[in-house]
Specification:
This protein is α/β, with parallel strands linked by helices and 515 residues long. The chain is built from 16 helices and 14 strands. β13 and β14 form a beta hairpin. The protein starts with a helix and ends with a strand.
Length: 515
């Protein structure tokens, strides 16, 4: 670059400055080249119903193959089974009660919001505070070109300075984004709403065989319910096909060897005790992370470590070599992904559901804690307003026939009706303050074990951990004294006698009865 005469002409101080700058230049170039790209594929309203996680009636060859070449997490969970809060947790590594985005906000896709005054006022009450950095803000500072495809559903817009907003997740649009990123590292968020009601299925993928379908145990076994569940499973297959198109675009771009791919869902499907509920069908999601073997060490079979959606932002920042901001509530999964021996996930996974309007003082609150086997559900403020999302009901726009079918056949399927009624403010049934389920023996969470004496120590441990978490994370929407009082009942020996606030179920061979 420079000949000997030119270098000799530099005085001593100039030489030092020159080589210092030259070193920083090449060091900076090396850093930029070592930053991986991120293709982040996010499905909406999709549970763990893929072949690789044990749903044989679904054909998901693309996702199954991605899981084989990367890392599949069998115990991955989101923080809140609602669209906006879940996405906000992914983008901030904070739970909804911490980042303030607790229920769904109005959608406006594009760099500038297009809201009425009323919509803007509503969204402002749920906006992520200025002092909480988002993943997109951090990537922007770290030199990344960023893009989003199809759906935003967050607040406020200025906390998410995407460079490019793309309306369709066609492979050509993905290819175009990658191509125009040039030498810059990039992050592309692709949102698939195919599994979001109303299902818009086509004949491009086969329909699951109704005779092979295994319904969730809390659904009435009728033909209408089976057909609707089959439509949901078909939508899952359509997402698999769309993901195949995205991965093909990545491969053809020539950037496959320097890109980490994430696939997960924002929460479970739009059914009662799924979307907008603190149960497994609402909180449990598929999570696959794949990439070049230098960064992601393929694992044989699913990884059973407990992981949360709040772990994704620190994982991305870790790989991007961007400084972690203070206050993150997740942890990087990089050691697990690199196959480091004894790398661990979480001891406990927490979930939350906020009911009602932005005013927290009028709404029922639900929290859950899961240790890998037992899930405890806690409800606070049972006498306050609680919601049922429109797409979990027969509201015409979302076309969910399972709601009406369950009520119609309540005499034939009384238990299944009760499971729905507990989550429906129009039905004469109220849910319980505490529930406990053994996921190993009861994956659909049918048999409530709370207040059964043989599970007393498990209940006590989970309530204590939940209380500690409420206090440590400053969950001001929960009255921690209720949990403390329940612990005192446990310790005093009066716990099993029951009280008005904590009724329980006795399980019989045919149906459940309240005690």
């Amino acid at each position: 670059m420079f000949n000997k005469t030119q270098i000799a002409a530099l005085n001593t101080m100039d030489s030092i400055l020159f080589f210092a700058i030259l070193f920083l230049f090449f060091a900076g170039t090396s850093v930029a080249q070592e930053k991986p790209n991120f293709l982040f594929l996010l499905a909406e309203d999709m549970g763990t119903q893929i072949g690789a996680l044990g749903t044989p009636e679904v054909q998901t060859p693309v996702l199954d193959s991605l899981a084989e070449t990367g890392v599949l997490f069998s115990q991955a969970f989101i923080t809140c089974p609602t669209c906006s809060p879940s996405k906000a947790s992914i983008m901030t590594s904070r739970f909804p009660h911490t980042n303030n985005l607790r229920i769904n906000v109005h959608e406006s896709f594009g760099p500038s919001p297009n809201f009425t005054d009323q919509q803007l006022a509503f969204n402002k009450k749920l906006a992520i505070p200025e002092q909480i950095p988002t993943l997109i803000e951090k990537l922007k500072v770290g030199g990344y070109r960023t893009g989003i495809v199809k759906k935003f559903h967050l607040s406020p817009h200025d906390k998410f300075p995407f460079d490019v907003w793309i309306k369709s997740h066609s492979p050509s649009n993905i290819s175009d984004f990658i191509s125009k990123s040039g030498e810059s590292p990039w992050f592309l968020l692709v949102v698939y709403d195919i599994t979001h009601r109303p299902f818009r299925n086509t004949e491009t993928v086969p329909s699951p065989n109704l005779d092979e379908i295994q319904l969730p145990n809390h659904f009435p076994d009728t033909e209408i319910v089976k057909k609707d569940w089959a439509e949901y499973l078909k939508a899952v297959q359509l997402i698999d096909s769309e993901v195949g198109g995205a991965l093909k675009a990545l491969e053809q771009s020539g950037h496959e060897s320097e890109t980490i791919v994430f696939f997960l869902s924002d929460h479970g499907p739009a059914y009662h005790r799924a979307k907008f509920s603190p149960y497994d069908l609402g909180l449990h999601v598929p999570l696959i992370i794949a990439g070049p073997e230098a960064l992601i060490h393929p694992q044989e079979g699913p990884i059973s470590e407990l992981v949360s959606s709040v772990d994704l932002m620190p994982t991305i920042l870790d790989y991007a070599r961007i400084e972690m901001p203070p206050g993150l509530q997740g942890q990087s999964l990089r050691k697990i992904l690199e196959g480091v021996p004894d790398a661990k996930g979480h001891d406990y996974i927490f979930g939350e559901v906020h009911h009602g309007a932005p005013d927290p003082d009028i709404a029922l609150q639900e929290r859950s804690i899961f240790d890998g086997r037992y899930r405890l559900v806690f409800r606070n403020h049972l006498n306050r307003t609680f919601m049922k999302p429109a797409d979990n009901t027969d509201f015409e726009l979302w076309k969910n026939p399972v709601y009406a079918e369950t009520i119609k056949h309540r005499n034939e399927f009384p238990d299944e009706y009760q499971f729905l009624a507990e989550r429906d403010s129009d039905q004469p049934v109220r849910a319980l303050s505490f529930e406990l389920y053994d996921i190993n023996t009861d994956p659909w969470e049918i048999n409530n074990l709370y207040r059964q004496l043989e599970y007393e120590s498990i209940s006590k441990r989970l309530i204590k951990k939940l209380k500690d978490w409420v206090i440590e994370t400053d969950d001001r929407y929960i009255d921690a004294t209720v949990l403390e009082t329940e612990l005192k009942h446990l310790e005093s020996g009066t716990w099993a006698t029951g009280d008005e606030g904590s009724s329980c179920f006795i399980i019989t061979t045919t149906h459940r009865k309240r005690n």
